[in-house]
Amino acid sequence: MSLIRAVYDPFNDFDRYFDDAFLSRFTGGNANFNREVTARQPFRPKLDIKDGTDNTVAATFELPGLKKEDVNIQLHNNLLTVSGQTNASVEREEGGYAVRERSFGSFERSLRVPEGVKDEDIKANMQDGLLTITFPKVSAEQAPKRITVA
Known about the structure:
- The protein has two domains: 9-41, no CATH class; 45-136, Immunoglobulin-like (Sandwich).
- Helix content is 18%, strand content 41%.
- It has helices at residues 10-26, 31-40; strands spanning 47-51, 56-62, 71-76, 79-94, 97-112, 123-127, 130-136.
- The strands form two sheets. The chain has a four-stranded antiparallel beta sheet with strand order 1-2-7-6, with no helix packed on it.
- Helix 1 (10-26) runs antiparallel to helix 2.
């Protein structure tokens, strides 16, 4: 069994919880204010990693509203990096006013892949806002080989 290291930033969630708790107290629970603060925070896609039964690993990124042209995947020194640009705009009528919300910015998530995995061994598929990247747990060169005693 190989070990896969994913880069996780626990302070991203901590900051969000901290901001939600204190901002709701000081703004009197104003939901619109909290929504505005959340809209200014950088986009950080959620990541699920699953260990497959067929000696592969699947990493699934949640990228709602993005097209495959907006996503860049790179492999460098056993570090798989998914990056891109998000640019979302929502317009609606609310209480007689036109409300326009825009969210834009870049994002980047990285995870380690096992030694020896080549770029042609990595497969990526994007469907319905989910980017799924699969790669082998170990490369063909690292797979254990049985040696017979003569």
